[in-house]
Amino acid sequence: MKAIIVGAGIGGLSAGIALRRTGWDVTIYERVTEVKPVGAAISVWSNGVKCLNYLGLGAEVAKLGGRMDNMAYIDGLDGTTMTRFSFAPLVAEVGQRPYPVSRAELQMMLMEAFGDTHLHLGRQVTEVAQDGDTVIATLEDGTTDTADLLIGADGARSVVRTHVLGAAPERRYAGYVNWNGLVPVSADLAPDDQWTVFVGEGKRVSLMPISDGRFYFFFDTPGEPGETVPREAFRDTLRAHFDGWAEPVQRLIAAIDPERTNRVEIHDIDPFHTWVKGRIALLGDSAHNTTPDIGQGGCLAMEDAVVLAIALQTNTLGVEDALGRYQARRSGRAADLVMRARKRCDVTHAADPQKTRDWYDELRREDGTKVMRGIISNIEGNPLG
């Protein structure tokens, strides 16, 4: 049996590895000539790590991951600690450490695990169709490929999703811009074993440790969509947004390399539950485009890959039946997490300023229990327990 996967991001590559492990012949088409990750790093929470363990990549992801033993929220303006706590209870409850990792290194690990024989870069799929039990992918140069199954893992602007739904859904601007990159670990920024988050004024600055003595950083700033900021203005723009904030934030702004900093306007898509049309199915951002506010976008894509492979391996009534079971297991969970991320986004970024001020007050009384319970609730319900 042959599968075509459209898209070589985290979800597409994970699906390719998972399907191969169950005996499928898999070909992946990716429109770009060089896979460049959107974003410098990614939080692979325990559910995502369990999926990589299932794919046989547990040791590899552990090497890429930073040791994130603790979490702290800091008042961004005066630099005082609002709350600080250990992640040990979370790890003990869910049975797996989370790992912040370089997104580029994670994708390279997945590409090496899949291999390059059937991975075709610079080959854009422009149209998909089904004729009987055969799916057909038409590429930009007019050539076609056929298979028994086609998976659309082609991201937020998915071509395959338009085929499945019959129209392209509207992307919703979440109200903020995310600036992200990597800097060397430095004690005058944050401890190297801690996820440190500075908050205030509906803005957020975060530092997470990853491998090889690096911090993954991001800034969240309010702004209108469609604005253009030249790279040479990145530091001055961030200084204006964070004028008067604590000294570690100012040092971080001074430490960034604008040429290696990403600026991303954050969007999501209202959840939908039609992921399958015949032998064509959606996976990852094409099925559930979410804001990054709970760090579950990549983890959900890896969960999709695992559930898809298990459904196709364990159900014997045919491909379309197995895809229907995949959709039934995944669409509800994904929709729930998309809406949780949207709710967290609104609180974090002051959609209602009073609710955000109330959250800041809660953090000053927090011992970590409520924050960890929220993270654990996102992890629970994953396909691997």
Automatic annotation (TrEMBL):
This is FAD-dependent urate hydroxylase. Pathway: Purine metabolism; urate degradation. The gene is hpxO. Belongs to the FAD-dependent urate hydroxylase family. It is an enzyme of class 1 (oxidoreductase). GO terms for molecular function: FAD binding; FAD-dependent urate hydroxylase activity; urate oxidase activity. The lineage of its organism: Bacteria, Pseudomonadati, Pseudomonadota, Alphaproteobacteria, Rhodobacterales. Its EC number is 1.14.13.113. Transmembrane segments: none annotated. Residues 2-341 form the FAD-binding domain. It comes from the Bacteria. NCBIfam families: urate_HpxO. It catalyses: urate + NADH + O2 + H(+) = 5-hydroxyisourate + NAD(+) + H2O. Gene3D superfamilies: FAD/NAD(P)-binding domain (3.50.50.60). It holds the Pfam family FAD_binding_3. Keywords: FAD, Flavoprotein, Monooxygenase, NAD, Oxidoreductase, Purine metabolism. Its cofactor is FAD.
